[in-house]
Amino acid sequence: MTTVYLNGAFVPASEAKISPMDRGFLFGDGIYEVIPSYGGRFVGFGPHIDRMHSGLAQLSIDPKLSLADWQHIADKLLADNRAELGDNLGVYFQVSRGTDTKRGHAFPANIAPTVFGFAFAIPSEPVADKAKATTYAVVTGQDLRWQRCHIKSTSLLGNVLHYQQSYSQGAQEILLFDKDGNLTEGAAVNVFIVKDGVIATPPLSHKLLPGITRQLLLAILAKHSSIKVEERDISEAEVLAADEIWLTSSSKEIAPVLYVNDKPVADGKVGDVWLTVQQLFSAHKFDY
């Protein structure tokens, strides 16, 4: 039986109970984070918590937990669950506004946030090997989500519907474009393209999540490589003409896309720039 964290206590998962009047259940009124760890070492723990605190502040939710508090909870979740789940674990944190006695849209006063965390097994960390890379086929579509995609809210229906759009077409992700035809992100990933050796990714805005893998990758490239990187608007035509396309997320790290709308990306093979960049990411991801 795995151990979870709920409102200040570590309890068996079967004993964790949350009220159906919780606003996370009724409204999706909350923030979440997923943080990967390998052999007990977290990737980007501080940046993940910083993003969660930013999202909570935008929702006016204060769980009154510091970075050190979150670190203690996460470390104990790893320690209590590694024997059963293995050495490669993700930690999921979710904070909702809490439970009220009635349902109403306005923020209720004087209720305590609900804080929940659990650990789950994840695959071994990706390696910089073209033959072992997990590759993706994607489709394209218009971004129909809300205008606050920079908040990592538990209200994920828009993302779920877009992911299902790709899944129903036999793909594993979708590349989304705004009303002006510019790339935003995927259903659960940020997106990079490569053309003539130059890496590009959309700039941060309300249209996309400030992904932690995206953040770490940009920092690593700036510090440890001379590869040119651009944060700018990227048209659909540029995406379709790219030499390489990557999906980034905490679970995928840097994943090559080989097909878009059933058509190959360039020669349909994992690219050389991906190999170089994945090598750098693997070498430095624990620095953050």
Automatic annotation (TrEMBL):
Listed pathway(s): Cofactor biosynthesis; tetrahydrofolate biosynthesis; 4-aminobenzoate from chorismate: step 2/2
GO BP, one annotated term: amino acid biosynthetic process
Gene Ontology molecular function, alphabetical: 4-amino-4-deoxychorismate lyase activity
Record bears the keyword Hydrolase: no
Domain of life: Bacteria
GO cellular component: cytosol
Reactions that this protein is recorded to catalyse: 4-amino-4-deoxychorismate = 4-aminobenzoate + pyruvate + H(+)
Co-factor requirement: pyridoxal 5'-phosphate
Uppermost EC category: lyase
Gene3D superfamilies assigned to the protein according to its UniProt record, in alphabetical order: 3.30.470.10, D-amino Acid Aminotransferase, subunit A, domain 2
Keyword tags: Folate biosynthesis, Pyridoxal phosphate
Enzyme Commission code(s) on record: 4.1.3.38
Protein purpose: Involved in the biosynthesis of p-aminobenzoate (PABA), a precursor of tetrahydrofolate. Converts 4-amino-4-deoxychorismate into 4-aminobenzoate (PABA) and pyruvate.
PANTHER family: AMINO-ACID AMINOTRANSFERASE (PTHR42743), D-ALANINE AMINOTRANSFERASE (PTHR42743:SF10)
Family: Belongs to the class-IV pyridoxal-phosphate-dependent aminotransferase family.
Name the UniProt record assigns to this protein: Aminodeoxychorismate lyase
Natural source organism: Rheinheimera pacifica
